[in-house]
Amino acid sequence: MLLERGTEFTAAGDALRAAAGGKASCLLLTGPVGTGRSALLRALPGPADGEGVRVLRAHAAPMEADFAFGVAHQLFDSLRSRAPREESERWQDDPRLTAIDRAGGTTGDAAEEWAVLEGLRSLLADISAEAPLLILVDDLQWADTPSLRWLAHLVARPHGLRAAVVGTLRDGDPGGRRPAVLDLLDAGPRVLRPAALTPDATRTLVLERFGTPGDEEFTAACHDATGGNPLLLTSLLDRMAADGDEPTAAHAGRAYTLRPPLLTERLADCLRAQSRPVRHLAEALAALGGHAGPDLAAELAGLDPWEADGALADLHRLGLLTGPGEPRFVHRAVQDAVAASTTPDERRERHEVAVDLLHRHGAPAALIAERLVESATAPRPWAAAILREAAETALRAGDPETAARALRRALQDTPEPGPDRARLLADLAAAVRDTDAAACERHVTQAVSLLSDPTERALAALRIPPAFLGALPAPAIALLRRTAGELGPAALLKGTAREAALRLEARLRHAGREDPAELGASVLRLRSMGEEPALRSAGERELAAVLLYAAAVSGALTAAEAARLGHRILEHEPAAPDRTHSALPLVVLALCGADSVDAVSSWLTAGHRLRAPSPARGDGLVACAVDHAERALTLLAQGRLTQAREHAERVVVDRPGEPEGEGSAAFAVVLAAVALEVRDPAFSERVLALGGRCRAPGLVTTSMLGLLEASLEAGRGDWADALETVLSCGRQLAASGWHSSALFPWRPWAVSLHHRLGDSGAARALADEEHARAERWGAPAVLGRALRLKGRLYGGGRGEALLTEAVTVLRGSANRLELARALQELGRRLGGGPRAEAALREAGELAVACGVPRLVKRAGREELGAPGVPAAVLTPAERRVVALVGRGLTNQNIARELGVSPRAVEKHLTNSYRKLGIRGRAELASGQCGPALGMTG
């Protein structure tokens, strides 16, 4: 509470030194609630000013405002308690002091009152002759009137006094407008208003409370949520520290939602002391949700325009509202304080009136819904429609939690079974499908049972999440099949019914993808649609995406055919920012397997730019996670491991605490694919832990997690166990008719493990099978990898020819890492000479650019690797940190230089070490990476 208060301490010290020199003065500290005026008073006199000073203290209180000369008594009592006994007894019996007991504060005789006030001034003059006085009075707005008159008398007649008077006065309090207070202000004290704390002070407080520097996001959120008000800020940080929160970006959102109870009590006490208009206006603002205009709030509070303007000004002066314009509370704790200062019946009655008032004035549905949800208002005939409209708006904005709350309240007001309740249940299913798939299925089942129209029943059933990389529960599949049968085939339908039929067919065909017969039927269905299937509607595109994926995993198409259809789907599909519950991720998978990702990257970028971020919620967590997962896949298909891992890590960050959600199986697949290439045991263990908690994982998930488990076993040297795990995955995939090695690379792992275990025959047989399938598929990345594996198994000229062919094929691939591996193998096989050196050098350059510097070291000829690290490997922030390390700066110095936290510096350095393939700061500071980073000296 005392940070950045140097101006105030200096002013108090100057006043005290002036008093010692015989010049009395008065200093008044004013400001809204929570600026630390009382804390400043308690800290006076400062360490350099306290010696030889006599201090008189008093703290005014509302309950003692009618006690005449109560503040004066407190001041002299505090002086006597610290004075030697002889002096204390002499002052106690002094008639000038005892006169205030007889005066009673209302003598009605101006001469007698003047005599009392002058007598007390004379007494202080005598006392100050021995030592300067520091007179401190807190909360002058509550001081009794006689004491205020006396203080004004002292300030107006300073001659002969060696005293400094310092008082505090809260802005906006009704007591501050009493005549006696105004007289004191007219006497000419110096007025100071302690300012809000700066972001630097907030950083200091975070460090003090948590013992560690806070992330910039955390510190900025705390400062923004409190406006730098010391009371709000310290209360917030104290509560977060007590709750065990860490000052990290992950906890930044808590700054906007946390409501410390002690802060609420303090603010409630402040509100209880206000005038009736101020209290009623605050209650009206709380009932309206803090988002209504002043006119509406005044109408609800029952105030005329003059009263409302004055009350609004007082709330602003108290520091409880934000700046001009639409009045809003500065923090949610203020709304709690308003509730704490009123009775439940008062709050309920005002909420009832507020809801009707908002509806009558045409307020936004979201605002009315918020009030309906937060209060137990009686059912209204229009409420369900308003709540449903608000829920639709929230879902479009990526806020399913708010939507679910509104819909649950609407269901309370719609107890009768029928179509209206069914539609609400279907909407609620859509709102909770990302977080509670079981509840989603339950709501859909109930909704379908209440609907009679087949199209409506089908649309309700389609609210069940598609689980494109997971497995739908049997009851959900049965429900989809039943509604599809009731609706009939798409060829016989039109409009919405046809769209629903196409989407149901897509869901059911994808649900049967692990059955070889169903998979074959899907391939035949795709071929029956001709070379250019119709893609005009969303239903047609969803069905085409599902059938494309079926043909890709079964190997029924060539990569060129899959790429052609995939590109057509993307051309017809708008680049929407939220693809969470569409079949489009299947198209992304197919195109990545087809080694055709350029169009995917631009399409994903376009969708990302359309996303409207929401600071309060974190930008729609599930949609963000899908976006990062798709980006990770496309980057992986390009061999850019560093960036792929960064996006994969964001998938985990954006899905905290939701491992059982519908999308968890899909996310586990993406993470496992990245982990297989990254080969970081710690990262792989985290992915396996996440995958183990997936709900209904399905064959894709179990296969990819099985391969990841095998990679860990191989890393531990358990090659036989790893091989058995890989072959088990292969048998499961083959039994379902899934032969694509582009999407499920079990054969390359099995080939390597057979070779390591010395079984060359099995390795070559499996490598030949992989080569044959890769040729049929035709994607350069898969074919080049198959050729490289065979080239490793064969010696002499045949092996060299296979590796040379692999390099040639991979030059036409988007996967630069696969080309680096083939070049490395070729360089090692050649043994020496210009051709070998050129191959190894190019392999090194590609490997480092892909974020895999370990590939260079495995070549055994590290001097033939990359001459440096391309600048694109590091982000701009990482490059700045690396440059400052090169200048010899410590992490603390770098943090100050860049205006970030030391933890942020450590994070950038850790990422830089990994990307540059070095062990730590010593190698970084040695300048070995300098030329590659564009640094000199």
UniProtKB/TrEMBL annotation:
SUPFAM superfamilies: C-terminal effector domain of the bipartite response regulators, P-loop containing nucleoside triphosphate hydrolases. It comes from the Bacteria. SMART domains: HTH_LUXR (SM00421). Residues 867-932 form the HTH luxR-type domain. CDD domains: LuxR_C_like. Keywords: ATP-binding, Nucleotide-binding. The keyword ATP-binding applies. Pfam families: AAA_16 (PF13191), GerE (PF00196). PANTHER family: TESTICULAR SOLUBLE ADENYLYL CYCLASE (PTHR16305), TRANSCRIPTIONAL ACTIVATOR DOMAIN (PTHR16305:SF35). This is AAA family ATPase.
